[in-house]
Amino acid sequence: MTKMTAEAPLTREMILNAAEQVLRRYGPEKTSVVDIAKFLQVSHGTLYRHFPSKAALREAVTERWLYNSILLPLQAEAEKQEGSAEVRLRLWVETLISKKRTYAAEEPEMFAMYAAVTIEAEELIKVHVNGLVRQIESILEYGVETKEFQSGNAANKARAFFLATSTFHHPAHAPEWKNPEIDKEFDAVWQLLLSGLR
Amino acid sequence: MTKMTAEAPLTREMILNAAEQVLRRYGPEKTSVVDIAKFLQVSHGTLYRHFPSKAALREAVTERWLYNSILLPLQAEAEKQEGSAEVRLRLWVETLISKKRTYAAEEPEMFAMYAAVTIEAEELIKVHVNGLVRQIESILEYGVETKEFQSGNAANKARAFFLATSTFHHPAHAPEWKNPEIDKEFDAVWQLLLSGLR
Fold it and tell me: Which residues in chain B are contacts of A167 at CB distance < 8 A?
């Protein structure tokens, strides 16, 4: 018979769940890998075999958050095949903006961690942004079918739309989101971009 | 007869010249008000009568730099009344982007100071941005006259154009400017905005 250990095997998912809880409780600055190991009741050596550094853990937590809380909910909006493309695109970008603003306001320390990862972990962010751009592209292609938008290089236009709205969703702009003019400013950008797509 | 002092009166201009030299030499982090006072051969009490804090000095140096090195050179481009509005607008925004990139690459410590001031000194930055937006507005109005651009609320469109190009000139995006795709990305945004203006 195989010898059974008392401990359940430590999965990546278990570690990330624990890391997220501990990061939330102590704040990303004060949390150490040892804190997370203690929470999981494993040695920090065991934890280091899964994540070689605190930076790697922070990145993995951010990556999961970006996927589960941003990319996945927006995917539903991007996949709809009914209604006006203009309305769908506006709803998509407003959802993105609202998720970012809520996170920045309600969990400022976790948001600061995500903003730092955005600068450090180029590859991770590139994958995330490419995912978002593909969603925009799919709405633009739908808009060409419904004759709301002009045809052309949809991939380029989608990237341009994403970059041109950065002020409202890129974490580096978070200090500006408290500006009382921000919604008016978004509307001015939206109108200009919409004219460009039509 | 009025009593003459040996010292020349300390002007704001003299202080800012000294502050800029000392900040450049030691770096904004390491420079203290005392260093600047020493450079000017005055007591730091004298200096504090003009600038109540290191933050006030940093802001004044940044304000002068934004005015002399960004707003003023761009004003010439904005005031021309000849040629194509499209070419003028592209030249204006490329000049802005190139000035920011050069500063970020050649004087990274001074650029970091300017980026920090951008976040802290809201009113100063608001005045600067309003100046830039008025320059864009003047080119857009010229473009309506030359029949290159559609008429409409030029002030709103100018602000939208400024915000939609933030990725390429807002100091918070400086880490992205080293991306080899950045010029291609600018071009995609430019094409979309131009379609929106026409």
Answer: 163-164, 166, 170
Q: Is B197 on the interface with A (CB under 8 A)?
A: yes
Residues 102-141 of A with CB under 8 A from B: 119
The CATH code for residues A58-197 is 1.10.357.10
Residues of A in contact with B180 (CB under 8 A): none
Q: Per-residue pLDDT averaged across A32-53, rounded?
A: 92
Looking at this predicted complex, what is its ipTM?
0.91
DSSP state of A28: T
CA distances from B161 to A155, B118, B139, B165 (A): 21, 19, 12, 6
pLDDT digits (tens, 9 = 90+) for B65-109: 999 999 999 998 888 888 999 999 999 999 999 999 999 999 999
CA separation (Å) from A25 to A28, A36, A136, B100?
Answer: 9, 11, 35, 39
Q: CA A187, CA A80: separation in Å to the nearest integer?
A: 24
- Map out the domains of chain A as residue ranges: 1-52, 58-197
Contact A195 B191 (CB under 8 A): no
Q: Over 80: is that where the pLDDT of A3 sits? A: no
At the topology level, CATH places domain B1-52 in Arc Repressor Mutant, subunit A (1.10.10)
pLDDT of residue A197: 98
- Tell me the two tokens of residue A29: 């600055």
d(CA B62, CA B22): 14
Mean pLDDT for chain A? 92
Instruction: Name the residue among B166, B192, B197 with its Cβ closest to that of A167.
Output: B166
Q: How many CB pairs under 8 A join A and B?
A: 80
B24-51 burial code (b ≥16 CB/10 A, e <16): eeeebeebebebbbebbebeeeebeebb
pLDDT of residue B5: 46
Give yes or no for A79 touching B (CB within 8 A): no
